[in-house]
Amino acid sequence: MQPPPFSCGHATFVGAPNAGKSTLLNRLLDHKLSIVTPKPQTTRKKITGIYHDDRSQIIILDTPGIMDPKQSLHESMLEITRRSLRDTDVIVALIPLQKGEEPFDRAFADELIEQWVRPADKPFVIALNKADLVPEETVHQVQNEIMERYHPIAVPALSALTGSNIQELIDLLRPLLPLDEPIWPDDILSTEPERFFVGEIIREKIFLQFGREIPYSTEVVIDEFKEQHENDPSKKDLIRCSIIVERNSQKQIIIGQKGAAIKKLGQAARKEIEELLDRPVFLEIFVKIRPDWRKKKNLLKSYGY
């Protein structure tokens, strides 16, 4: 008996900030890969997650949310999304459902599909996220409207938060991918290095701990990542990083009175980093001022944008 055909290819998640792209990626992988916070624009760079099962390997690209660019950083984030859409095999446009008279943002959905998805000229699915927030009748009405309005291949309704109908999305994507052998071993969840995720964890803790503009005006740079446990298991890995801010007042907020805020930040980040790496680390955090770094293309390039 012939084994079922195997599919392998790229699927790009695209949508507004806070549409649930990162939560969906984490749910599909059953692992926290993308950082998630209640604040929009948490994801700044493309994050690659690799889903495996016995019939497919889906290389998922979680992209920054589409927004009106206010500075060079936003333009760089949007260019990451454009490149991901060009290089993918299939697109998942994620539209969140919402309570109230309007079950979804039609104006943004028009922009998303007409200005971003269609120009990429790839097969696309429109997934309705947060379907658990609205009545089933509303879900069916929206599915019919979206199918008539945009003509995607399918309109699955799911909840990235609860995990409902996730398998339906996988079953829809599989036949849209090339028939091919897996590219990556089945124990690999991402192509990004450990130091990338260490920086993302620290950024997440900044988003969760500080309010207003602080999270948006910061960047995290890993200056040193020394794996010392390999030669001596009693030694902790050494991680030195810099939190980049734009003004001295922001630096003072991150450090806090008598260093209390940065100590709290470091403790929260170290705990999760140790869980990620499954080994103890020594984490040192410095705060550096780089005025208007979000507007300077040379600095953005050096930070990986």
From TrEMBL:
Output this protein's name. GTPase Era
- Species whose genome carries this gene: Chlorobaculum parvum (strain DSM 263 / NCIMB 8327)
Q: Where is the stretch described as G4?
A: 129-132
Give the family per the record.
Answer: Belongs to the TRAFAC class TrmE-Era-EngA-EngB-Septin-like GTPase superfamily. Era GTPase family.
Question: Where does the Era-type G domain start and stop, copy by copy?
Answer: 7-179
- Tell me which SUPFAM superfamilies the record gives: P-loop containing nucleoside triphosphate hydrolases (SSF52540), Prokaryotic type KH domain (KH-domain type II) (SSF54814)
UniProt gene name: era
**Subcellular location per the Swiss-Prot or TrEMBL entry:** Cytoplasm; Cell inner membrane
Specify where the region named G3 lies, as residue ranges. Answer: 62-65
**Keywords annotated in UniProt:** Cell inner membrane, Cell membrane, Cytoplasm, GTP-binding, Membrane, Nucleotide-binding, Ribosome biogenesis, RNA-binding, rRNA-binding
Chief localization = cytoplasm
